[in-house]
Design brief:
Blueprint (H helix, E strand, L loop, with lengths): L2 H6 L2 E2 L5 E2 L2 E2 L9 H15 L2 H16 L4 E5 L8 E2 L7 E4 L5 H12 L11 H18 L10 H11 L15 H6 L29 E2 L2 H10 L3
Antiparallel strand pairs: 1-2, 3-7, 4-6, 5-6
Length: 229
């Protein structure tokens, strides 16, 4: 099965296009769907893959309307703390306020041309500009201060939204990384492992393999973005 087919199968089209970040499909407590699916939505629009784009848009539109601060949804409560949706009877959602990466990539997808409501996205662009301003120093410090590593995607997504090339101090992240390489305008032919992370582009420091097989959202988005260079 191709990466594209695996991604299409990761959406439950009978239930509001609920998304599974693992293969085979199962509903989980996954909370980063807005960030990753938004990148794929924008990338799909850029290359004209309307089928994948529409699945992403259906999922994202439900996510932002199913409940306040929703991070995930399903036709049943995945965990005891999931809340019943007032917007969609019979659906439940995981409540947790979004940080930066999700709204940032969501706004980027909208600006790529995806039909997404953006009235809830407030100061994302100003925050993105701040991250871009701090990025040169961040690139010098991130390998020395472990607590900074968790913010790598936010810094990179900020440049994606603003349309600015990341600084030279972070160019080392492009090795074997077609997503980050795209932000630098660099062509890279590399296949992420399906066993390391839901968004393996971030894991440039190494990782421990686990038992799950992850939906290749990152791989497909990276292939689409790379094809535009």
């Amino acid at each position: 099965m191709t990466n594209r087919e695996l991604v299409i199968n990761s959406f439950d089209q009978d239930h509001m296009c609920g998304f599974s970040h693992v293969v085979p499909f199962r509903y989980t407590n996954f909370i980063d769907g807005m960030a990753w699916v938004s990148v794929l939505a924008g990338a799909s629009h850029m290359v004209g893959d309307t089928e994948v784009e529409n699945l992403c848009v259906r999922y994202l539109t439900t996510l932002v309307t199913v409940g306040d601060d929703a991070r995930n949804f399903a036709p049943f409560p995945v965990k005891d703390n999931w809340l019943p949706s007032r917007a969609f009877q019979g659906y439940y959602y995981k409540e947790k306020p979004q940080s930066f990466a999700g709204p940032c990539s969501y706004l980027w997808a909208s600006e790529c041309g995806c039909a997404l409501p953006t009235d809830f996205v407030d100061d994302v662009r100003s925050t993105a500009k701040l991250y871009c301003w701090l990025a040169p120093l961040y690139g010098l410090l991130v390998n020395r201060l472990d607590f900074l590593k968790q913010h790598l995607n936010s810094v990179m997504f900020a440049h994606m939204l603003v349309g600015k090339k990341p600084p030279s101090s972070l160019e080392w992240t492009t090795k074997d990384n077609p997503f980050y390489a795209y932000l630098y305008g660099t062509t890279v032919d590399f296949e992420y492992s399906k066993h390391v992370s839901a968004w393996p582009a971030k894991h440039v420091w190494g990782y421990d393999e686990d038992r799950d097989t992850y939906t290749p959202v990152c791989q497909l988005a990276s292939e689409y973005l790379q094809s535009t260079l």
